[in-house]
């Protein structure tokens, strides 16, 4: 069963977008993430940014990449809710951590922050409605 079918089977809040919206949005966001996070990891590797600055970016990537298998593979809505909160929290942390070193990276995360904020509300709502 594919992800869009699983998504459609859950009780949805009134503001839930159709499943086809997620692919294009994440395609753009993953491009932004690849460029900006890649810059951070490169600068850390070169010793131009302290290693600790990379920590929230690494946490964010791990949480982000674990969300889909938990949400759709395991279909564990409560755990997916915890993970999306970690994605949101680590993104805010990353934005604060990088600000003194590369403000453009912080500003580049704004579309990601907007989407993850929406996705967090959506995930918590879906979890609540399907508990």
Keywords:
mainly alpha; 76% helix; 131 residues
Please tell me about this protein's structure:
The chain is mainly alpha-helical. It has one domain (18-129). It is 76% helix and 0% strand. The protein is built from 6 helices and no strands.
Number of strands: 0
Helix content percent band:
over 70%
**Straight-line distance between termini:** 21 Å
Mean pLDDT, rounded to whole units? 95
Helix/strand order, N-terminal first = HHHHHH
| Residue runs with pLDDT of under 50 for 5 or more positions | none
Number of separate domains: 1
Strand content of the residues, in percent?
A: under 5%
- Biggest sheet layout: none
Structural class: mainly alpha
What Rg, in angstroms, do the CA atoms define? Answer: 16 Å
Label the overall shape: elongated
What is the number of helical segments per DSSP (H or I, 4+ residues)?
6
Summarize the structure.
Helix content is about 75%, strand content about 0%. It is mostly helical.
């Amino acid at each position: 069963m594919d992800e869009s079918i699983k998504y459609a089977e859950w009780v949805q809040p009134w503001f839930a977008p159709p499943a086809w919206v997620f692919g294009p949005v994440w395609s753009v966001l993953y491009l932004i993430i690849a460029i900006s996070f890649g810059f951070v990891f490169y600068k850390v590797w070169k010793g131009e940014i302290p290693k600790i600055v990379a920590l929230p970016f690494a946490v964010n990537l791990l949480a982000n990449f674990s969300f889909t298998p938990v949400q759709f593979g395991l279909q564990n809505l409560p755990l997916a809710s915890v993970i999306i909160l970690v994605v949101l929290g680590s993104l805010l942390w990353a934005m604060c951590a990088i600000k003194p070193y590369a403000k453009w990276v912080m500003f580049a995360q704004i579309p990601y922050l907007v989407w993850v904020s929406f996705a967090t509300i959506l995930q918590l709502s879906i979890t609540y409605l399907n508990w």
